[in-house]
Amino acid sequence: MFQGVTYPASHGIWRSWAPPLERSKLATLAPCGSYAGAVVGMPISAYLTDYIGWPSPFYFFGVCGLIWHCVWYWLAFEKPATHPTITAREHHYIEKSLGALKYQKVPT
After folding, report:
1. 78 near 17, Cβ under 8 Å?
2. What is the DSSP string of 39-100?
């Protein structure tokens, strides 16, 4: 229920962070983490269930989700201009490439 917004939200993030020439690569690479999570999560769940008990995967992945939330809340920012640790060179590159795209007229 809560992860349903993940894929549309990632496109919103790439809109502000990804230079146009890199956007398609990043937008297709981002959802791959969910597949990698399934590949890694199934064996971990089997191990936890076998050695600790059937509720243990729920607790384990719940704690992992809370930790990921804290990391994301600490590191993620809406725009490069609001990020406190981005270098001036990175900020200039992103803003310059996105700025050039904002003012291009779309053919009708």
Report:
1. no
2. HHHHHHHHHHHHHT-TTHHHHHHHHHHHHHHHHHHHH--SSGGG-SS--HHHHHHHHHHHHH
Residue 37 CA to residue 41 CA, distance in Å, equals 6
What kind and span of H or E run contains 33? helix 32-51
Nearest 5 degrees, angle CA 88-CA 10-CA 104?
60
pLDDT tens digits along 5-33:
777 778 888 888 888 888 888 888 888 87
CA 84, 89, 94 angle in degrees (round to 5)?
Answer: 80
Instruction: Indicate the pTM of the whole model.
Output: 0.69
Pair 74, 85: CB distance under 8 Å: no
Q: What are 66's two structure tokens? A: 């809370």
Task: Reply yes or no on whether the pLDDT at 52 is more than 90.
Answer: yes
80, 91 in Cβ contact below 8 A? yes
